Amino acid sequence: MSQRVANFFSDLRRRQQLLLPVWFEDGQVIILDQTRLPFQEHHLALRHVNEVAVAIKAMQIRGSGAIALAGAWGLYLAALTNQSTPEQIKEAGDLLKKTRPTAVNLQKTIDEITRELEPFQGEALTRTVEDRVLAIVQRQLDFEIRLGHFGAQVIGDGDTILTHCHSGALAGAGYGGRALSVLRAAVEQGKRVKVIASETRPYLQGARITAWELGQLGIPVTLITDNMSGFVLQRGMADLILVGSDRVAANGDLANKVGTYLLALAARDNVVPFYTATSSHTIDLSTPSGKEIAVEMRDPREVLLFNGAPIAPESTGAIYPSFDITPAELISGIITERGVLRPPYREKLAWLGLERETR
Ligand code: RUB
After folding, report:
1. What gap in Å lies between CA 357 and CA 359, rounded to an integer?
2. Ramachandran region of residue 160, left (φ > 0), alpha (ψ -120 to 50) or beta?
3. Ligand 1 test: best mutation among 106, 145, 245, 279, most atoms within 8 Å of CB?
4. Distance (Å, whole) CA 257 – CA 260
5. Of 260, 180, 257, whose CA–CA distance to 214 is shortest?
6. In 3D, which of 125, 132, 128 has the Cα closest to residue 110?
7. Does residue 260 have its Cβ closer than 6 Å to ligand 1?
8. Rounded to the nearest 5°, which phi and psi values hold at 193?
9. Distance from Cα 268 to the centre of ligand 1, integer Å
10. What DSSP assignment string belongs to 195-235?
11. Quick one: CA torsion of 229, 230, 236, 237, rounded to 10 degrees?
12. 73 contact partners, CB below 8 Å, separation of at least 6
């Protein structure tokens, strides 16, 4: 590993309160195993890109930003392998892209690192991959800080925010990911906030990870089961809803953790603003609308078992769509690193997405 990578991380660590989901140390990709939170802070040391792919598929690292960065460091591992070629790095990228198909950040990050590597070989190849990976990690962190700053405008002092799944530092680059960057920035601006987190069956990202991360930040959090959100909104117990995003289509339709769509419907019925926090990297202009977004279907056993024990008769079937689509018309605002977009979204997203590609 070059001294530059070591310096990069020691510099990141010096910054206050970064919760890094993934980093690179002593020739290994280190990830905080999110399946063990909140009861154990256990780290995995991965030495081969295949191990990174397995960890992403097994949700040991998850959240759209964090899996993109894990994929990036996986490619760096591939590039460090003796005599690796651009073709081998591309193959490693294809393997990583298949692990989680919905979060476009992973796909775009892999493409960004593996594009036009053909002229490079040996040390120049490793160095090129390293340059790209470091730039991507830094950019993602900068985006989180900037979108947090813009998003904090929609948070009022004393607000209670309802969030679903986990869209925080451990789903991102370490500041606050998407939704929790907004809350973190609001607190840094002196606003008092409270959070209601839905548990997020079946992986319990809300109960296990959002609650843990908010605890680290000292932000009060109340847990509800997923089916309590309608009650909470009807009784006026939340001032706004704030979620992350795995992909935003060209028309503004949003793919996010399954259950988000129901929340958005209940928000409209109860006139509660519904926001998503995202970045230009998550806007997918090549996907016209939510209908064309590939939704990851996970193993039904993940629904039928809880902590490894069955919760239904053996003959019961199950499905597990990991994400759902919230139509653009249910979204009050899209928080990005360039500001808060208001409907109609199509032209603003086109500008932001294209602008990013030419930056
Ligand atoms: C995570 C999930 C989060 C999004 C959005 O899914 O749906 O809500 O990743 O958050 P999983 P962010 O746990 O299946 O990876 O925009 O911060 O990634």
Report:
1. 6
2. beta
3. 245
4. 6
5. 180
6. 132
7. no
8. -130, 155
9. 22
10. EEEE--TTTTIIIIIIHHHHHHHT--EEEE-GGGHHHHHHT
11. -20
12. 22, 23, 24, 29, 52, 133
- Which ligand 1 atom sits closest to the C-alpha of 167? 17
**All structural domains of the chain:** 3-145 (1.20.120.420), 152-357 (3.40.50.10470)
Query: pLDDT-based confidence at 359, cuts 50/70/90?
Result: low
Nearest CA owner, ligand 1 atom 9: 63
User: What's the gap between Cα 130 and its chain centre?
Assistant: 22
- CA 27, CA 76: separation in Å to the nearest integer? 10
Q: Using alpha carbons only, how large is the chain's radius of gyration in Å?
A: 20
Among candidate residues 344, 5, 335, the one with its CA nearest the CA of residue 185: 335
Check if 246 has its Cβ closer than 6 Å to any atom of ligand 1.
yes
**DSSP-derived secondary structure letter, 189:** T
pLDDT tens readout for residues 274-300: 999 999 999 999 999 999 999 999 999
Residues 342, 274: Cα–Cα separation, whole Å: 11
Residues 186-210 have pLDDT tens digits of 999 999 999 999 999 999 999 999 9
246 catalytic, yes or no?
yes
Confidence at residue 307, expressed as pLDDT on a 0 to 100 scale: 84
Cα 313 off chain centre by: 34
CA 286 to chain centre: 20
State phi, psi for 213 to the nearest 5 degrees: -70, -40
Using CA atoms, how far apart are residues 255 and 238, in angstroms rounded to an integer? 22
For the CA of 276, the closest atom of ligand 1 is 16
